[in-house]
Amino acid sequence: MKLILLFAALLMAAGVQAQEIESIDFHLYTDSLKKGRYNYINLDGKLSNGRYLPLSQKEVLFKSNTGKWDGNSLIVDSAYDKDSVVVTATLREKPSLSKQIIIYIKKTADEGKLYTEQELFDNRKRKN
């Protein structure tokens, strides 16, 4: 019985590995980039079975008209004076599969304070 389960698991794993990426799509977590911060660029690959797979710099070559890349994160210099950034993602295994997007730069200043975990905990404690 254990041998059958092991064989079934191996077949399932081989089936997942055999899926090919048919298309790639940006699924951004925000509508704009912030200067001087890490902006995570989420890219998913649609597999031949219809499922989506998150992609990283291991599978994708990221390029942009400005900024530095750290993995999937783009850091735009605070001195950048344009209103948008052009980002291109190209699948490393299949360079013909590429996607480009224009992402705008946030224009208004960040308002409010970003609280630490301890400050949030203390504020909640005071309210109760």
Question: Which labels suit this protein?
Answer:
128 residues, alpha+beta, Immunoglobulin-like, four-stranded mixed beta sheet, three-stranded antiparallel beta sheet, 2 helices
H-E order:
HEEEEEEEEEEH
Unreliable sequence segments: none
Under CATH, the topology of the domain at 21-109 can be stated as Immunoglobulin-like
Q: Which architecture of the domain at 21-109 per CATH?
A: Sandwich
Q: Average pLDDT across residues?
A: 87
Multimer state:
single chain
Number of helices: 2
Shape: flat
Count of distinct strands = 10
Give the CATH level 1 class of the domain at 21-109.
Answer: Mainly Beta
Q: Characterize the main sheet.
A: 4 strands, mixed
**What portion of residues belong to β-strands?**
35-45%
Structural category is alpha+beta
For the largest sheet, list the strands in their spatial order.
2-10-9-6
Helix fraction? 10-25%
Radius of gyration: 21 Å
Query: Between the first and last Cα atoms, what is the distance in angstroms?
Result: 56 Å
Signal peptide: 1-18
Keywords: Signal
